[in-house]
Design goal:
3-stranded antiparallel sheet; alpha+beta; two-stranded antiparallel ribbon
Amino acid sequence: MDAFPGEAAWAVLAGRSGSVTELFEYGFHGAFPPVLPRLSVGARAYNVCWNVNAGNHIAFAADGEMLLAVDAMYPERWVQETNVARWPELTAMAPHFRWRNGKSWRAAALATIELTTKSRLSQEWLEQERSHFIGLAPVVDQR
């Protein structure tokens, strides 16, 4: 993991539904290259993240390439992005990201991923028992 040298990263497989695989990653490792593009090889991968300081983004990668990562709090800035048209569900959901109008940009971001993938994180889904794995990044001696 080049993005965070010296840090061990891990992920948990949360579930699989047809062609959709949902991963939870510890920290923000999945939010930065090269993780999301690697997950998207031969597919599409989506990411939503935020922290307590409102640092955030919603992103997608396809076929090994990071295509779009935008600030979820400011949809009016998305029009400047060259690849925004490649994610029509995000543009369609833009009115729901307008937090100054009382909307929840966090809920809108998660709903956009659900709309795009057709995979819903319902209470029933959360209550299902699932298999999982944890993978640790190799520890490299940097002496």
